[in-house]
Write a structure and sequence with these properties.
alpha/beta; TIM Barrel; 11 helices; 9 strands
Length: about 325
């Protein structure tokens, strides 16, 4: 059973709370990165989303530079860069620059989804939007990071020859199998896609081939977590995310709402089922309750690391939640 050294990491979507601005969300992200670094968290990742009024991390590599400049030890990464939105050369140059400035602290997590709606994906990609060319784009990107070969005419400067760890992210089985076949670490998006969790982990481990980057499978699981000093308060904090997802499925995405004690008045039974099913990969409660939930989760999945998303409306409550979660893992 994992103990005090079990790796915990942070996934921050840079949520914009109602009444706040993108600038506030980005400053809060840095404050949280500094806080979780002091607590001993391993990584702090931000995600690429576009045309979403409640998320401030669209320019993901720019946000990473801001976070890396304001921290000292915690690894800063993308969870993830949606590779088909970009030319591989651009990503190699961006992450090569980050690695050059903050050596040994940069992770490149990659996804193949657009991270947005179809119209915005078309505006970003100016071509195919199905992600079917992701394996070819990934191969091109990995070649750009490889050491230069004699006579090589195309190089990422900086980027070529730098050790930027690549992770594949997934919410189904496609990237799990690809990560296994290539010998790359794999991060599963259990925070919004719990149904495919066990099949994805199984396929990743079964298909794993050792590589120069990784000798054995390494799986990280994304979860949501809302911890407070008492269980009622924890469920109250979780209601902000529940409302945000309810608005999303209604086709009205927006900023992160303040929490409520009365979710039942806000959703219909079928909406409640959809929200709670999608967000079932969540830890909610006080230290004692979450301790039991977490021990069972780690026993069932056998993952090597957790990356935790806590979209909590109040910044101080969000920081406290991460502190309590760290206490939980130390007690396991």
């Amino acid at each position: 059973m994992p103990g005090s050294n079990f790796p915990l990491s942070v996934l921050d979507l840079c949520s914009i709370a109602e009444g706040a601005t993108a600038a506030t969300a980005l400053h809060n992200a840095l404050e949280l990165a500094q806080h979780t670094e002091a607590l001993g968290y391993r990584r702090f990742w931000v995600a690429e989303h576009h045309n979403m009024t409640g998320i401030a991390s669209a320019a993901t590599s720019v946000v990473m530079g801001y976070l890396a400049a304001g921290t000292e030890r915690i690894r800063i990464g993308s969870g993830g860069i949606m590779l088909p939105n970009h030319a591989p050369l651009q990503i190699a140059e961006q992450f090569g620059t980050l690695e050059s400035l903050y050596p040994g602290r940069i992770d490149l997590g990659l996804g193949r989804a657009p991270g947005t709606d179809g119209m915005t994906a078309q505006a970003l990609r100016r071509g195919r939007t199905d992600g079917e060319d992701f394996p070819q784009m990934l191969d091109e990107l990995r070649q750009l990071f490889a050491p230069a070969k004699p006579g090589q005419r195309l190089s990422a400067v900086p980027g070529t020859g730098l050790n930027v760890p690549i992770w594949l992210l997934g919410s189904s089985t496609f990237s799990a199998q690809l990560a296994g076949r290539l010998g790359l670490p794999f991060a599963f998006a259990g925070q919004f896609s719990p149904d495919y969790l066990f099949s994805a982990l199984r396929l990743y481990r079964e298909s794993f081939t050792p590589s120069e980057q990784l000798p054995s499978p390494y799986a990280m699981l994304g979860i949501n977590a809302y911890l407070a000093d008492d269980r009622e308060q924890a469920h109250y904090l979780a209601s902000s995310h529940q409302q945000a997802f309810l608005n999303l499925i209604r086709g009205k995405p927006g900023q992160l709402p303040p929490p409520t004690h009365d979710m039942e008045s806000l959703w219909q039974p079928h909406e409640r089922h959809q929200v709670m099913s999608t967000l079932s990969g969540s830890l909610i409660g006080d230290v004692e309750a979450v301790g039991g939930q977490l021990a069972e989760l780690l026993e069932r999945t056998g993952v090597n690391e957790l990356i935790v998303n806590s979209p909590i409306f109040d910044q101080s409550a969000r920081q406290h939640s991460y502190a309590l979660l760290k206490r939980v893992t130390e007690a396991l």
